[in-house]
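Subject: for your reference before the review

Hello V.,

The reviewers asked for a structural picture of the protein, and I figured it would be easier to keep everything in one thread rather than splitting it across files. Below is the amino acid sequence we used in the manuscript, unchanged from the supplementary table.
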Amino acid sequence: TINENGGPYQGMKRFDVRTKIVKDLEEIGLYRGKQDNPMRVPVCSRSKDIIEPLIKPQWWVDCTKMAADACQVVRDGTLEVLPRQFEGNWFRWLENIRDWCISRQLWWGHRIPAYYVTLPGETEDYIGTNETISRWVVGRTYDAALAEAQARFPGQEVTLTQDPDVLDTWFSSGLFPFSTMGWPNQTPDLADFFPGALLETGHDILFFWVARMVMMSMTLMDGKVPFKQVYLHAMVRDAHGRKMSKSLGNVIDPLQVIEGITLEGLHAELKKGNLDPKEVEKAAKGQKEDFPNGIPECGTDALRFALVAYTTQARDINLDIQRVHGYRTWCNKLYNAIRFAMMNLPKDFLPSAQLGAEEVAALPMCGQWIVSRLNKAVAATNEAMDKYDFATSTTAVYAYWQYDLCDVFIELMKPLVTSADAAVVYGVRNALWWALDAGLRLLHPFMPFITEELWQRLPRRAEDLAAVPSIMLAAYPVASAAWAGEQQEQEMELLVSIVKCLRQQRAKYGLTPKQKTAVYVTCATPAATAAVARGALYVATLSSSESVEAVADAAAVPAGCAVSIVSEECSAYIMLKGIMDPAAELAKLDKRFGDTTKQHQDLHKRMDMATYQTNVPENVQQADKDKATKLQSELATIEEAIAAFKKLQVEQ
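And here is what came back from the structure prediction:
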């Protein structure tokens, strides 16, 4: 609406005035015509109103020297920007710095402490219209500004009017490192906590906030940087890499991931906002495509672990809810590991007070191995965290729990806990307790809730529990030379490779877990033969074998065995004589080969049709290609099995 300065047009709407002015010009003969003028019309994103530019005096800051100083501290290592790839952004912004407009015409914010001086005889209209800089004074308080004005205009009566503008948000935010601790007063907090050590924030505000904090701290705090390191986290996007937007319906609320929500619930959330009905419809369609069954309940720990694991993507995180849910399922595996421990650790079980070289030597070989694997996981995790390489740290922790502790050690210890040798039983239980206790402490920063719950369930000495009642207060694991066992790891690596080979053989011949077979292993070196002999029980346990025997050479292997090559110096023989009927198995394989061949031929016949490329959707074509590859691989596997059974038939 036009104000009193509009004369006869006062009170009229702005667009109506434009039409009226043209009409008035025509009436007095001053109208000369109109023509189109290409321009970008600014529109308010909320109200959709046309934004009218209004030129006003503003306050500016010359940033040239501050920016140069901020560049220098990064170059000389005083300030470290991590990941280092963002140093380029830092220099591009600051080396091309411009004057900074710090005035904002808003209702909220820090009001600019600048006061305009009026002298006797000057009208109110004069206030704010004169840009004479000598009439402006600045002070932290009104009294300080008044003293400045009186000194500038001695002997005259002065009146101060504070500028109604407020400071730019980033200006106020730039004061954060020291203003929150009592600055400009020299407080104890300021002396103790400034400068800080680390700032963690998003890379999208590296210039807007981080650079401003550095420039202002160096200017106002005697050249000190506000922190030594800046760690920039990635920006979370949806699984397709799109920026999260309400109108797209792909905004993921962390609480909805933690607690779960149905598709109908997601739709209901859209209606709570102020989206246009058309945008609500579009967003609901997007939600149905991305979350057809809603968002499953994942829990806090799974979401936390997933976000940390995703940091390897650096700039952006394409958040896939299915991956988060996968970690929730993994939490069940952790629970089952502790449940197994509680079944095999008596309530009165007391682990060794420490796990030094003497205690490690008393453990069975599999116990020494798991402690050594734990030691490597601890070292890798700590090294990665020191470098802020959180993705590598989660990989190390996950691999230890999944592939070493759950997949191997827990299976290996099952026959040992029933041993008649009390020393063996205690040793394997002690190894299990330390593997779980240290493993939970290692995992705790990434999954704080489940690790606290499971850690509390482990048996421990009363005095230890009194001293450390929570895993939050327990020491974080550090690598120890006493835990390292390279020989045990090398031997176990050989044993696990034999197990994998035997599992492949059993799968090829279709053996069930109940069909236990005798296994013979030949090795080229005495050391490898001795390792297999020591670990025969471990191989038998993991491969569902009746027995495992290390023999000198192939001549000592009885007839009726199928052979598989483990490595250039090791072979494994699995006894099939008396367990499987080669003729019957060949008949089954011949029928399966024929059925699979027909499927493969029919699929290629359809794919070779003249209209296939033009009439069949691309996603169906890709599915057909994948199926053809799978059938080809299946045929190759069947042919290998047929050849093996024919050879076995001849030997029998």
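For the response letter, the relevant points are probably these. The chain is about 50% helix and 10% strand. The chain has a mean pLDDT of 89.

Happy to draft the paragraph if you're swamped.

O.
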